């Protein structure tokens, strides 16, 4: 399978996979290279099953988020038998996943990310597509009982939202892009209304894939400039968004995880997806670790509970095998370690959420070729093993 055959529209899928590798971070400003060992076995991981026992057509990409009460949200889409996307959301209540149906908007819809306020409130963002085939930004709010589309929520034609971060109940950021202006889209909830916030002009065809905030004056957003084939990093200091130096010369960043002002992780992949990227900001400069698994390696999400307990997930395509393998790697404060999950499966992972050192969730799906076409994949980390739930 060639890289071209594996390409997908950037706002349609967020992929993730892993193969056995051990990585060590180098000095400030260094670019580190790590090669993967052969995929190892993954005992204890059973067959892939859909969320909550729903039919196999519960497919698509999913993003997960800690629900603040030890429970977890996951959002994405289902597909009907005409292959039309329908936005979907599920919540793990401590025992099982339960479907919490979002509002149906447009001819089709998809949710790309979810952010949790507390046990009874959450925000999800994505896009809907109207009968003319035009995308519209989609924002949905969970009030504790049901999802709703708030009045005045962003929905301009030609816009897409891909990431959301809850800093506080009256401080929520969502990012994506404007398909007309070919520029990043940044919108903010202040507790009473959503407004678009101006950001720096980025290249000639730029998008933001994810956003994460640590405080009201420390918010990070990452993505890529397709025209310039380079990653994009923006930072909010409480007053304005600024464009920061690009840590990788050519590639895309898909997720960001700020631990402290001088401890920020961003993940993604190089152009052509030949190498996965793990980039670290120490307050002054970036240190980049390249994960070389041989062919088409990507990281798609990152989350953690402390500076020495962080998970990054993604996927890799193994050379000469056409195997698409899910990937999960862990940072213990010193080195990145990881391995293949279900090496006999064609699958990728899209989102990860951590609640404690022995409680992490990752979500994705079994693939048919480059696209999701089988059951939803959900795995849980119990402190020792990843197991399918």
Low-confidence stretches: 1-61
Could you give the count of β-strands? 30
Helix count, per DSSP? Answer: 1
Residues in helix, %:
under 10%
Characterize the overall form.
globular
Question: What's the name of the CATH homologous superfamily?
Answer: Kelch-type beta propeller
Strand order across the largest sheet: 1-26-25-24-23
Give the domain tally.
1
Strand content: over 45%
CATH architecture: 6 Propeller
Largest sheet: 5 strands, antiparallel
CATH class term: Mainly Beta
Mean pLDDT: 79
Structural class: mainly beta
* CATH topology label: Neuraminidase
Tell me the span between the first and last alpha carbons.
30 Å
Q: Nearest-angstrom radius of gyration? A: 19 Å
What does this structure look like?
The structure is a single chain. With 389 residues, the chain is mainly β. It has one domain: Kelch-type beta propeller (Neuraminidase). Helix content is 1%, strand content 56%. The strands form 7 sheets. Strands 1-26-25-24-23 form a 5-stranded antiparallel sheet, with no helix packed on it. It has a 5-stranded mixed sheet with strand order 2-22-21-20-19, with no helix packed on it. Strand 29 and strand 30 form a beta hairpin. The chain is globular and about 45 Å long. The N terminus is likely disordered.
């Amino acid at each position: 399978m060639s890289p071209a055959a594996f390409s997908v529209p950037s706002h349609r899928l967020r992929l993730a996979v892993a193969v056995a590798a051990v990585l060590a971070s180098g000095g400030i400003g260094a670019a580190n290279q790590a090669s993967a060992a052969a995929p190892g076995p993954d005992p204890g991981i059973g067959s892939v099953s859909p969320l909550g026992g729903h039919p196999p057509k519960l497919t698509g990409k999913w993003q997960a988020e800690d629900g603040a009460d030890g429970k977890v949200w996951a959002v994405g889409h289902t597909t009907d038998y005409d292959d039309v996307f329908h936005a979907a959301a599920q919540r793990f209540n401590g025992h099982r996943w339960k479907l919490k149906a979002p509002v149906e908007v447009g001819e089709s819809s998809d949710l790309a990310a979810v952010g949790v306020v507390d046990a009874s409130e959450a925000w999800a963002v994505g896009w809907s597509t109207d009968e003319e085939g035009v995308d519209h930004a989609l924002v949905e709010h969970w009030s504790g009982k049901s999802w709703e589309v708030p009045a005045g929520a962003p929905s301009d034609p030609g816009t897409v939202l891909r990431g959301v971060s809850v800093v506080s109940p009256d401080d929520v950021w969502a990012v994506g892009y404007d398909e007309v202006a070919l520029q990043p889209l940044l919108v903010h909830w202040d507790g009473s209304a959503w407004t678009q916030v101006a950001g720096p002009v980025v290249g000639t065809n730029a998008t933001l894939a994810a956003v994460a905030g640590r405080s009201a004056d420390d918010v990070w957003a990452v993505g890529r400039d397709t025209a310039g084939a380079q990653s994009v990093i923006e930072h909010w200091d409480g007053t304005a968004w600024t464009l920061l130096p690009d840590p990788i010369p050519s590639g895309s960043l898909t997720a960001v995880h700020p631990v402290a002002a001088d401890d920020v992780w961003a993940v993604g992949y190089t152009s052509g997806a030949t190498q996965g990227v793990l980039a670290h900001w120490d307050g002054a400069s970036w240190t980049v670790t390249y994960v070389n698994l041989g062919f088409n390696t990507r990281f798609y999400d990152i989350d953690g509970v402390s500076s020495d307990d962080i998970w990054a997930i993604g996927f890799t395509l193994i050379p000469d095998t056409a195997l698409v393998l899910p990937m999960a790697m862990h940072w213990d404060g010193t080195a990145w370690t990881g391995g293949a999950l279900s090496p006999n499966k064609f699958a990728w992972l899209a989102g990860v959420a951590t609640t404690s050192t022995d409680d992490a969730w990752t979500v994705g799906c079994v693939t048919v070729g480059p696209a999701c076409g089988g059951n939803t994949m959900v795995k849980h980390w119990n402190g020792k093993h990843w197991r399918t739930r």
